[in-house]
Design goal:
This protein has nine helices and two strands; from the N terminus they run H-H-H-H-H-H-H-H-E-E-H. By secondary structure, the protein is mainly α.
Length: 262
């Protein structure tokens, strides 16, 4: 919340810039479909977490679903609110990342119709500037969500070890929030992956006779720009996200096995 408050102006400027690019290049319908899909995913994740918390609250009291009106309702409300806050922040960054992916796709679609390699370099310069500005605007929130993902490990273990006969239900809300954050990280990493495929596309284009040197200079400029999604100077890639998920899973399994055997 503090990070969003401090960077509110930057976030507003970034979204206005991304929407203006989308409007100028006539990709609103595509953007709307993608945003709707992301919204459905996060609403489904939040609903699953809330439903699991409600069912567990009823079963913990040894009653049916009518017990939700009584003593177990507080647990369900707290879980619903907390998961909703975290998933709301994640969806906000997903919305920004989705706009960036569409912006790169729009560049690749428009570059085919360009007649000058210098013009392509100029458009790419503006594109990577928008990428950097958007990354700087959301990096603090993204880092906070990563800490949420890391601290979800002991919470999962505590829920599993101290559950009252329904360990799966206790873990579902935390797992749902974890899936939402992982969805965000994978989407953000695809931005960098998209940028790595742009030089090959530009190198395959023809800008007329005698423009091979200018085209090669443009390709070298795009490669050396190392555009992508950055978090505090570190380029976020799919490989780094998969490595993080692998280490995270190994840590969870190892710690859970150690606790169960002891």
């Amino acid at each position: 919340l503090v990070s969003v408050r401090r960077h509110q102006r930057a976030l507003e400027d970034t979204m206005a810039l991304l929407l203006s690019v989308s409007f100028e290049r006539r990709y609103q319908e595509w953007h709307s479909r993608q945003a709707l899909g992301d919204k459905v995913v996060f609403v489904a994740i939040w609903f699953s977490a809330t439903l699991a918390a409600c069912i567990y609250s009823a079963l913990r009291e040894g009653a049916g679903l009518d017990e939700l009106v009584g003593r177990g309702i507080m647990h369900a409300i707290v879980t619903s609110v907390l998961s909703g806050v975290v998933l709301s922040f994640a969806y906000g960054i997903v919305h920004v990342c989705r706009s960036l992916t569409i912006m790169i796709d729009a560049f690749c679609s428009d570059v085919v119709h360009q007649e000058s390699a210098q013009r392509v370099a100029h458009i790419w310069n503006m594109t990577q500037a928008i990428l950097r500005k958007a990354s700087l605007s959301v990096e603090h929130c993204l880092l906070g969500l990563c800490f949420v993902l890391v601290f979800a490990v002991p919470l999962l273990l505590l829920d599993f070890l101290h559950s009252d006969g329904a360990p799966i239900l206790t873990m579902i809300p935390t797992l749902c929030v974890t899936c939402g954050v992982l969805y965000l990280l994978l989407l953000a990493s695809t931005i960098s992956e998209q940028c790595t495929r742009v030089p090959a596309l530009v190198n395959a284009l023809s800008f007329g006779e005698g423009t091979e040197a200018a085209r090669q200079q443009t390709v070298d400029y795009i490669c050396s720009s190392a555009a992508g999604f950055y978090v505090f100077g570190a380029r976020l890639t799919t490989v780094s996200v998969l490595k993080f998920m692998y280490v995270w899973c190994i840590f969870v399994v190892g710690l859970l096995t150690k606790l169960r055997t002891s």
